[in-house]
Specification:
Length: about 300
């Protein structure tokens, strides 16, 4: 149904080991912002807007880009081959970029960047490139938190020599972590406008105003809403499958598996997970802490 911007999925209930789990939740589309990873990946699959995003973050001119055909907008049902919400981009020189919005600190972004670089290299080699022909790969995480706690807005990492930090290994890999809550001191005005918009959803220049207009249009697009709900259902199916597998091995392991999926894949908050699983926030936090130690 549609009511004041809210679409509600039918609620179903499953019983496992005496515990009831609500497998759906209301979605208030009016509350969705550019920080929602589905919205972000939908908006920035537009090549020109994605190019401007990259130029502002990287501080460089990019002539033209192509967004990967396998990861088009949400209207093209990108989850048909697996749930994947990052944006894969290639420029005219053959350099490749992977961009992802990350609101929660899942404690594994550094290792995920390593995986993404490996995946991008593998894709180039499968396409027939020799090692000497590999182009640059740039992984960008746009974070709603300060992963390194240095109050910077941009952290850029390349491979350097430990004994001589002026000596760089030219492996053509760059990892960029954007901190939306970092200091804006010394940043170019156009980058400040972008970061401020991504953090607050308040547009302050023509580019962010255009992006905000696309966000508002998508929130009210019936087809986009339907596909958003389908993606939520796919994620919940994955949650249920993981929960069942874990519960077969015991209640605690089942809960841990469910919480891991809800936190890292569905990107729910601690209070939302507690409500969904009918347990206390303290129990959820305890299991989250335990999961982080095991990573």
């Amino acid at each position: 149904s549609r009511n004041g911007g809210t679409m509600e999925k039918k609620h179903t209930k499953t019983e496992k080991n005496g515990m009831g789990f609500i497998t759906s939740r209301k979605i208030d589309f009016n509350q969705i912002t550019i920080q929602n990873d589905v919205m972000f990946s939908s908006v920035f699959r537009d090549p020109e807007d994605c190019r401007e995003l990259l130029q502002r973050i990287l501080g460089m001119k990019i002539r033209e880009i192509v967004v990967s055909d396998d990861q088009k907008s949400i209207k093209a049902k990108p989850w048909s081959k697996g749930i994947r919400l990052d944006i894969y981009v290639k420029d005219m020189e053959g350099n490749v970029y992977d961009i992802e919005m990350q609101v929660l600190d899942t404690q594994e972004l550094a290792l995920r960047s390593r995986y993404y670089h490996s995946e991008m290299d593998s894709y180039q080699i499968q396409a027939g490139h020799k090692y000497t022909e590999l182009k640059a790969s740039i992984v960008i995480f746009i974070c709603g938190f300060d992963l390194f706690e240095q109050d910077r807005s941009i952290y850029t990492f390349k491979t350097i020599c430990k004994e001589d930090t002026e000596l760089e290994l030219n492996d053509k890999r760059t990892s960029v972590f954007v901190n939306l809550k970092g200091s804006r001191e010394g940043l170019p005005p156009e980058l400040v406008c972008l970061l401020d918009y991504l953090e607050s959803s308040e547009a302050t220049d023509d580019f962010t105003d255009r992006i905000n207009g696309r966000v508002e249009n998508l929130k009210n697009d019936f087809e986009w809403r339907e596909n958003y709900m389908m993606l939520e259902m796919k994620m919940e199916e994955r949650f249920e499958a993981g929960l069942e597998q874990g519960l077969e091995q015991g209640r605690e392991q089942g809960l841990a598996q469910g919480i891991k999926i809800l936190l890292y894949d569905v990107h729910m908050t601690i209070p939302e997970i507690a409500e969904k699983l009918s347990i206390t926030e303290e129990e959820v936090q305890g299991m989250v802490d335990k999961l982080k130690k095991e990573m």
